[in-house]
Inverse folding.
């Protein structure tokens, strides 16, 4: 059974950092492009970043540029999203998703999804 599990969401103060983890079971993430998405209350889901199975990373959220880093830990079959200098506008549920082709900013292109983790930024 193919599963993605997301962890690392939390309540942090503005300016804080979080490290989100997307772990896979039942398949190898090295064979997948892994995207991070987020959905804030009342808003559509938006692409944040993606690590391509072919190499290379993509950052899609202009508001987060310079504050996020995506990386892989192949030994743990995990993709990490490091987020720094968080602000209240980053409050959302964060999801990871996988697809067997190259990265895409469209969530409809991803076939496997994790359940999401809540990130809340508030003082």
């Amino acid at each position: 059974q193919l599963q993605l599990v997301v962890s690392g969401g939390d309540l942090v103060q503005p300016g804080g950092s979080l490290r989100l983890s997307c772990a896979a079971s039942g398949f190898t993430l090295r064979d997948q492009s892994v995207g991070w998405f987020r959905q804030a209350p009342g808003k559509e889901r938006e692409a944040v970043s993606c690590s391509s199975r072919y190499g290379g990373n993509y950052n899609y959220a202009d508001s987060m540029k310079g504050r996020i880093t995506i990386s892989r830990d192949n030994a743990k079959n995990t993709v990490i999203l490091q987020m720094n200098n968080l602000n209240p506008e980053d409050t959302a549920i964060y999801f990871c998703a996988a697809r067997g082709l190259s990265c895409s900013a469209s969530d409809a292109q991803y076939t496997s999804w994790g359940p999401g983790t809540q990130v809340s930024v508030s003082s």
Notes: The first strand starts at residue 3 and ends at 7. The mean pLDDT is 96. Residues 17 and 84 are 4 Å apart (CA to CA). The two ends are 40 Å apart (CA to CA).
